[in-house]
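Hi F.,

I've been meaning to write this up properly since the lab meeting, where we talked about keeping a consistent format for the predictions we share between groups. The idea is simple: the sequence comes first, exactly as it goes in, then the structure tokens exactly as they come out, then a line or two of notes. No screenshots and no reformatting. I'm using this chain as the first example so we have something concrete to point to.
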Amino acid sequence: MTGTFIQKVCLLGRPAVGKTQVVERFVHNAFDGHYIQTIGINIVSRREALRFKKQDYVITDLIWDINGKFLDSQPNLLRTYLQGTSGVIVMYDATNRATVAELTATLRQLKEFWREVPVVFLANKVDLEDTVRLEERVLSGIASEWDADYFYTSAKTGKNIPAAFTALNKAIIARGCI
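Output, unedited:
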């Protein structure tokens, strides 16, 4: 399976958890810190060369940054956006306990919409002083249930963002979801 691949990756999470800033950090290595709500979806791409199980890959991620309001208000539209997805990043805001509780609702939606695809969980904004980290055992339990990796990230500093996308790309390759 060594080769060059193009795949669709969706970012899901409630509004203002930092999805767009994570994408900006990953794709452009930039951070502006201003909140601008995504209208519908924003699609960008980034190419990554990686070595996995002694094989070389060049992966182009087509990253779909999906408006968080679609999780509740537009489930049919969300289902359309998720079609053909190779992997998903599910995010919450580590400074906002409500987004942690809502993570469960997001996961229910995931299971309803399509076959199991690789998932990576991000607890974002860990650079902020008012961070209320989801207990490691809780986050690791959720990740274990999904056979997924999880990362504590910061779009501002770039902490763990490339590692999260690399982990997702490796999971996509491992599960043959390319």
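Notes:
The chain has one domain: 3-174.
The chain has a mean pLDDT of 85.

If this format works for you, I'll send the rest the same way.

G.
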